[in-house]
Amino acid sequence: MNIVELLDSSAVEADIQSVSKDDVLAEMTDVLLRSAHGLNREAVLSVLQERERLGSTGIGEGVAIPHGKLKNIEQLTLAFGRSKKGVDFDSMDGKPAHLFFLLLAPEDSISVHLKTLAKISKLLKDQHVREQLLVAGSAEELYEIIRVEETA
Amino acid sequence: MKILIVGAGQVGYFLCERLSMEGHEVTLIDRDEAHLRQAQDRLNVMGLNGNGASAEILEQADIKNIDIFIAVTDLDEVNILACLLAREYSVKTRIARVKSIEYRSHGAILSKEKLGIDLLINPADEVADEMINITCRSGAFDVAEFVEGTIQFLGYRIDEESPLCGMTLRELGELRGMYRFVVTAITRDEETIIPRGEDNIQDGDSIFLFAHQNDLPAIQYLLEPGDKKKKRLPRIFILGGSQIGVRIAAQLEQQHFDVRLVDRDEQRCRKISAKLKKTMVIQADGTDIHALLEEGIDSADTFIAVTGKDETNILCSLLCKQHGASRTLALINKPELLNLAPTLGIDACVSPRLSAAGAILKYVRRGDVISLATIEGSNSEVLEFEVKQGSAFINTPLKNLHFPKDAIIGAIVHGTSHEIATGDSQLSVGDRIVVFALPDALTKVEKFFD
After folding, report:
1. Are residues B348 and B361 both part of a single domain?
2. Do the Cβ atoms of B259 and B246 come closer than 8 Å?
3. Integer angstrom CA distances of residue B328 from A7, B29, B61, B188
């Protein structure tokens, strides 16, 4: 399944305000809730924080992919956010994270979850893609870049 | 090197097979002519019929020029006496298998130092340690540690529920930013391959991976199927109150497992209760499933069968698995059954022979090869090397090296940092590296690092 099929355009935020790791997780959860209305905010947040405790999902080069497994959700849900200032996310390379993909998966379909995680990771490893995402003007533009680059 | 092995039993045969295959000059001594002939017919070794604890026979075997002496007969006394003789002939490395002599604990009356033996191997202890290791790594059925435990080598069985089922190696590579591990081997239908690129992981596979110990919590989170999370202490059932069973129970109760040990002999149960602190000792027959259900076998995380009989261990493992035990480990002595048991659905089979032989091999080959593990059912090995000054391959990306096919560098430890090897990784002097090699590539790999 493609990333754009799982990412609702309302769950894209071009201007993440938070400056700390905990705050950015909360803000990204709110972005996700714009498209996934039924979810319990606290439950999502605790799943994400629990995963971060095992090791940061900041993969370096300004990218972080916080993710977790949740009971009682129907399908894989994504949100995307960009911070211009950057956030210290305890990333491998020590650099601040600017691009955030949040990914939440039902507990019983972890395989799809991993394949999507791999796709996102691959997409954001492309320097050309990262540069475009960093300079894009609006959430619509961000969504369009993801759509175009994913199928490129 | 010139190696002399006394005892053509299971351990001796296995060691002869491995060491002769690696090009060592191996001489084998045994009193049983049939055993000896079998080894001579199948392996490239020289056989000598006689008593390994007799100076005359040892001289016939050219003991004065032997580098490594290994005594692995069924008799402790013979092994120890043979090693004492070897010391008189100034053999540098002396190894003995002992079954009933306590030498490890504090206050043991005999020790390897007192006996002048470099390595004393007790198969029961080795097998118990291996089972403890496997039990402590949930989900994994095979475990070995490298670079002082920092690099872990883990085996997992894949079923259709496994998160990794259907993933290609390329996709897993994409995840390496967050999940730092590498799958170095897949065993499928009794064949072991080193997977690359578009190879994928399938239902029924056994996979073997390398990871750094610090990255294990995240990896276990990834690999664990969703609903199996439990809050209570992991519950372990051990069947068989032998030396092995008691050793496993003692270690696991210390590591905060909820341990229940089952033995059918009342007197033995009473003795064991006195030795163990927290373990619940249950007097019952391993096949008495009603009694075991009453004690909670249906919620057991791991069932470990270590009675003296392979058949009992296999049967009871299957029975308990059917009644809800999540994972089963069985002690298997007969080599023929060792390959059969996993196909029946037992999660891990551990053999005293392989455990002891593995430990001996590891010791014999610590030179350049620092430590080593043997993979069940296949002759593949994991080897650890240290990069030496003057090596030709320093500071060259791995993808440009002509590294032997059928082998793969898994992890590299540079001082305090580490990485999972990729084509762009480079080696520096002093790095410790861990390599997985299929049998054909073993010698090539050792030459490569020589």
Report:
1. no
2. no
3. 42, 38, 44, 20
pLDDT single digits (tens) B270-327: 999 999 989 999 999 999 999 999 999 999 999 999 999 999 999 999 999 999 998 9
Interchain proximity B167–A92, CB inside 8 Å: no
Read off φ and ψ for residue B26, nearest 5 degrees. Answer: -110, 130
- The answer, for B177 touching chain A at a CB cutoff of 8 Å, is yes
CA distance A61 to B184: 27
Residue B213 lies in a domain: yes
The answer to the question of residue B135 being in a domain is no
The rounded mean pLDDT for chain B is 87
Closest CA to B360 of B155, B83, B152, B164: B83
| A67 flagged as catalytic | yes
Of the candidates B167, B177, B178, which has its C-beta nearest A115's C-beta? Answer: B167
Task: Name the E strands within B151-295.
Answer: 151-157, 181-188, 191-193, 206-212, 235-239, 258-263, 280-283
Residues B320 and B372 in one domain: no
Q: Are residues B245 and B326 in the same domain?
A: yes
Same domain, yes or no: B214 and B240? no
Sequence spans of domains, chain A = 3-151
Angle B216-B129-B204 from CA coordinates, rounded to 5°: 55
Say if residue B265 is in the same domain as residue B348.
Answer: yes
| Predicted complex ipTM | 0.85
Domain CATH for B87: 3.40.50.720
Structure tokens at B262: 């089952």
In-domain check, residue B343: yes
Helix, strand, coil % (nearest 5) of chain B? Answer: 35, 25, 35
Q: Mean pLDDT, to the nearest integer, of B206-217?
A: 87
Verify whether the Cβ–Cβ distance B227 to A111 is below 8 Å: no
pLDDT per position as a tens digit, A7-46: 999 999 999 999 999 999 999 999 999 998 888 999 999 9
Question: How close A131 comes to chain B (CA, Å)?
Answer: 19
Level-2 CATH architecture, domain A3-151: 3-Layer(aba) Sandwich (3.40)
Domain that holds residue B31: 2-121
Q: What is the pTM of this model?
A: 0.68
Q: Per the CB < 8 Å rule, is B178 touching A114?
A: no
Alpha-carbon gap: B180 to the closest alpha carbon of chain A (Å): 11
DSSP state string for B382-448: EEEEEPPTT-TTTTS-GGGS-PPTTEEEEEEEETTEEEE--TT----TT-EEEEEE-GGGHHHHHHH
144-173 in B: which are within 8 Å (CB) of A?
162-167, 171-172
Instruction: Judge contact between B223 and B139, C-beta under 8 A.
Output: yes
Question: Does residue B330 fall inside a structural domain?
Answer: yes
Last residue of a domain, one of B70, B87, B121: B121
Which of B175, B177, B214 shows the shortest C-beta gap to A60?
Answer: B177
CB distance A92–B214 less than 8 Å? no
Q: Are residues B350 and B360 in the same domain?
A: no
Catalytic pick among A37, A67, A113, A128: A67
For residues B108 and B129, give the distance between their C-alpha atoms in angstroms, rounded to a whole number. 19
Residues B337 and B426 both lie in one domain: no
**Tally of domains within chain B:** 4
B360 and B348 housed in the same domain: no
